């Protein structure tokens, strides 16, 4: 049973966390390089929010948005 848990430890520490260890070492060299993944995620989320707001505006301008308080059956 001890070998099973040591195998799990090896998997996570030496294989799955290797990219994070690389980013930790990279941060000592360049902060911007280490945070590139964060910037990419922020750009993706910003684009998604802008798209969502545009879609909300399209439905609001068309008048198809049901803003009645009884729009959902559980609010009756």
Largest sheet composition: none
Give the fraction of residues assigned to helices: over 70%
User: Radius of gyration from the CA trace?
Assistant: 24 Å
Contiguous runs where pLDDT drops below 50 for at least 5 residues: none
The topology string of helices and strands comes to HHHH
What is the molecular shape?
A: elongated
Distance between the termini: 57 Å
Q: Would you tell me the overall average pLDDT? A: 88
Return the structural class. Answer: mainly alpha
Total strand segments: 0
Count of discrete alpha- or pi-helical segments spanning 4 or more residues: 4
Strand content: under 5%
Protein name: Uracil phosphoribosyltransferase
Keywords: Membrane, Transmembrane, Transmembrane helix
Organism: Flavobacterium ginsengiterrae
InterPro entries: DUF6341 (IPR045922)
Q: Overview of this structure, please?
A:
This protein has 76 residues and is an all-alpha fold. It has 4 helices and no strands. The longest helix is centred in the middle third of the chain and has 27 residues, at 36-62. The N and C termini lie far apart (57 Å).
């Amino acid at each position: 049973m001890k070998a099973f848990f040591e195998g799990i430890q090896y998997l996570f520490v030496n294989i799955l966390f290797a990219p994070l260890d690389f980013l930790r070492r990279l941060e000592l060299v360049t902060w911007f390089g280490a945070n590139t993944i964060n910037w990419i995620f922020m750009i993706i989320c910003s684009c998604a929010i802008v798209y969502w707001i545009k879609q909300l505006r399209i439905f609001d301008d068309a008048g198809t948005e049901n803003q009645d308080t009884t729009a959902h059956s559980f609010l009756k």
